[in-house]
Amino acid sequence: MAATYQIAVIGDWESVMGFRALGLDAYPVTSVEEARETVHRLAKSNCAVIYLTETLGKDMEDVLARYKDELTPAIILIPGREGAFGLGRDHIQKAIERAVGADIL
After folding, report:
1. In principle, which of 19, 25, 59, 88 could form an S-S bond with 9, CB 3.0–4.6 Å?
2. Which domain does 88 fall in, by range?
C-alpha cells in the first residue's frame, strides 16, 4: 500500500486557517521557536510539503538551510497576512539555479 503524505501550513492563525478548507493541515503558531519545533516534528512524520509564512521564514534561515536539499519535506515560503516580502520567490529562484545551474527566471 502506498504511503499517504501530509501537506501542512505553518504561520499565524489568520494566515493559515483558511487552508483547512482546502484539506491542508494548519498549524497556527505564535512564535518563531514554536514554528521551528513544528517544522522539525513534521519533518520526522509523513509530511511531504510544508508551507511556511515568509514572516516566520525570514527568522528561520537555519531551518530552511537544514531541509533545502532533503527530498521531504519541501518547505515553501508563502506570503502571510502582512503580504509578500519576496522571500518565497528568492528561495524558489535559488532552488532552480541549483537544479539547472543558471538563473532562468
Report:
1. 19
2. 6-100
Q: State how many domains the chain has.
A: 1
CA distances, 9 to each of 4, 59, 86, 100, 104 (Å): 17, 17, 18, 28, 28
b/e per residue, 47-78, with b = 16+ CB within 10 A? Answer: bbbbbbbbbbbeebeebbeebeeeebbebbbb
pLDDT, mean over the chain: 84
Dump pLDDT digits (tens) for 68-104.
Answer: 888 889 898 988 877 666 665 666 666 556 555 656 5
- Whether residue 80 is contained in a domain is answered as yes
